[in-house]
Amino acid sequence: MRLYEYEGKGIFKKGGIPVPWGSVVESAEEARRVASEIGKEVAIKAQILTGRRGKAGGIQFAKIPDEAANVAQGIFGMELEGYKVNSLLIEEKLDITNELYMGITIDAENGVPVAMVSAEGGMEIEEVAKRNPEKIVSMLVNPLYGMRTYEAINLVRQIGLEGRALTSASRILSQLYNVFVANDARITEINPLVRTNEGKMFAADSRCEIDDNSLFKYPELKDLRIQRIGNPWERKGVEGGVNYVDMEGNIAVMANGAGLTMSLLDMIKTDGGSPVCFLDTGGGLSEERMRNAVSLLLKKTKTDQCIKVILVMVRMMISPPDAVAQGILEAIEEVKVKTPVVVVMRGRAPYEKRARELLGNSAVSLCSSVEEGIGKAIEIAKA
Amino acid sequence: MSILLSRETRVLVQGITGRAGRTQTKWMLEYGTNIVAGVTPGKGGEEVEGIPVYNTVTEAVVQRGAEASVFFVPPAAVKAAVLETIEAGIKLIVIVTEHVPTHDAMEIRAYAKGQKVRLLGPTSPGIITPGEAKMGIMPGNMFTAGRIGVISRSGTLAYEISGDLSAAGLGQSTVVGMGADAVAFTNMPDLLELFENDPDTDLAVIVGEVGGIQEEKAAQFIAHHMTKPVIAYIAGRSAPEGKRMGHAGAIIQGSMGTPQSKVTVLQEVGVEVAEYPLQIVELVRQHLIHV
């Protein structure tokens, strides 16, 4: 789960990392009040869940409170990268001499945290990695021991820092690591970490992602996570306990198991079809989950006229065919849409036989193999 | 004996008294798995399917000689339970549990490093040595005994592909589900090495998917250490970019992680990559004819 900049800065501050003085606001009037409290030039930053807001006008500056209110008013009306702006962070503007990068994330190969620093802060780190990979230095951290002071100093030295800058930056790196661990983060990143004219360092931005598997420890975030899913269908999917991803096409696809669903999409594309979504129900199918999943797709076809057919592939392992078939039929009964539904149910022979008894005479087209099901769905989609 | 698991392996089931633990214990026993004990703290003295339940892993090891363990333990309890299991001297641990906190997974991995234990998962469907034993939730009827080793990140695809191979008369030595989480306890090259050294395996099949660096690392291993043929399939070639892909992990690995990069690096080291699951059967058959 990705956090807003101001939330990330909140946990940075708790962890001892210096952040600029400021406050989050939800109206132009509040923006004026905060700007006048700060009493100097302020930065006004749109709070959206993507990093690319500067170029689109999501970060502006104002010298006096009236100007801050006007600028804030303008940004509140914007839609940036598909996100509507509902809140702004008003902060003191810093006099910056240079910008660094600092981040902690997970190294997939070694399964340990990795710390990265670069003297090229302020631009997207993905770009730096592509153009000048040598400008990023990194270090693996043993999660059992944490980051030791000398390790932080050794890493930060490699980007050319000396004296007070070296000690400040390495202290912030250690704190950033501690924040990463204490909040079950997948990413904690400061970009840029700025150095001011007076030689002080501040986290001018934050990027934090909390591990979804750890959200049970943070009940307040768990509910927010669902609310913040921008795509309404993906949100409904999470609410119904299934994994849903929107795509562009005309065949709605669902199956039980992420790998199986992905391979179905691949096969449909290879055969000239065009899947409109990925819906993985996960294992241990109940009648209820099956009904939720199928009805989600049927409801989607009501709003998206492009969808010509729904392809359902169920590999019956644990779930008995009765629950699966019943779930499908109930969803069709509940959501009255004429969209054709192609079903493939595979499993032990008695399971397949029972599935034929249950669905053979229903409104769905029952196919006996994956290939047949895909062929049928593509044929309907192209008709 | 194929790899990791045989009919003799003395298996412990942790979380045996839960719903999943009970059901799967029944099915593992029916398949022939030599389950010798279960553990659920507070339920010591009970029985599940005739199997004695203990409070601690050490009791199960001392009294029943358990040597491998399969986990149906809730995610928040996995870390402590794994550390207990390693300390009790268990040599093979399969974590079926989904949604294990990533920081717990990292700590477990770091703790296990350097110790004589093999961990699989989290989110692993398990291991099956067809005709002998299974640890985990794989549906036994999809597999038949034979000489092909299968390594899969996805559970359901492991079943599908093994089912296709079985239907074509191509049995499997062992099928290993390594788990689909960002942090895997055992990486693909380590499993390939086990198949390379296994006299009962002639050929290995890798079932990969988008994201991470497992397949890229497998390609490096294959180039330098594999003499047996390897066939691969990568799921998710049509997956939209940026969905559920760990961006930061991809930074340090450059362009690694995209399905195309995986296919390319595998092909460069001579691995044939199937376009769709069923094609694996054709590719395997061609190889076996050539051998």
Throw out a few tags for this protein:
heterodimer; A: 383 residues; alpha+beta; D-amino Acid Aminotransferase, Chain A, domain 1; Dna Ligase, domain 1; Rossmann fold; 3 domains; 6-stranded antiparallel β-sheet; 14 helices; 42% helix; B: 291 residues; alpha/beta; 14 strands; 22% strand
Task: Walk me through the structure.
With 383 residues, chain A is of the alpha+beta class. Helices cover 42% and strands 26% of the residues of chain A. Chain A is built from 14 helices and 18 strands. The longest helix of chain A is centred in the middle third of the chain and has 20 residues, at 163-182. The two termini of chain A are 41 Å apart. Chain A has helices spanning 5-14, 28-38, 54-58, 65-76, 125-131, 149-157, 163-182, 219-227, 232-239, 258-270, 287-303, 321-334, 349-359, 370-382, and strands at residues 22-25, 42-46, 59-62, 79-80, 83-84, 88-92, 96-107, 112-118, 136-140, 185-196, 201-203, 207-210, 243-246, 251-255, 275-280, 309-316, 341-347, 365-367. In chain A, helix 2 packs antiparallel against helix 4 (65-76) and helix 6 (149-157) packs across helix 7. Chain A has 3 domains: 1-20 and 94-228, ATP-grasp fold, B domain (D-amino Acid Aminotransferase, Chain A, domain 1, 2-Layer Sandwich), CATH 3.30.470; 21-93, 2-Layer Sandwich (Dna Ligase, domain 1); 230-382, Rossmann fold (3-Layer(aba) Sandwich), CATH 3.40.50.261. In chain A, strands 7, 8, 9, 10, 11 and 12 form a 6-stranded antiparallel sheet that branches. A 6-stranded mixed sheet of chain A has the order 13-15-14-16-17-18, with helices on both faces. A 4-stranded antiparallel sheet of chain A has the order 1-6-2-3. Chain B has 2 domains: 1-124, NAD(P)-binding Rossmann-like Domain (Rossmann fold, 3-Layer(aba) Sandwich); 139-291, Succinyl-CoA synthetase domains (Rossmann fold, 3-Layer(aba) Sandwich), CATH 3.40.50. Chain B has helices at residues 19-31, 57-64, 78-87, 102-112, 155-167, 188-196, 214-225, 247-252, 259-268, 279-290; strands at 11-14, 35-39, 47-48, 51-54, 68-71, 92-95, 118-120, 126-129, 133-136, 145-152, 172-177, 203-209, 230-235, 272-274. Mean pLDDT of chain B is 91; it is low at 245-254. Chain B contains 10 helices and 14 strands. In chain B, helix 3 packs parallel to helix 4 and helix 7 runs parallel beside helix 9 (259-268). Chain B is an alpha/beta fold. Helices cover 36% and strands 22% of the residues of chain B. In chain B, helix 3 (78-87) links the parallel strand 5 (68-71) and strand 6 (92-95).
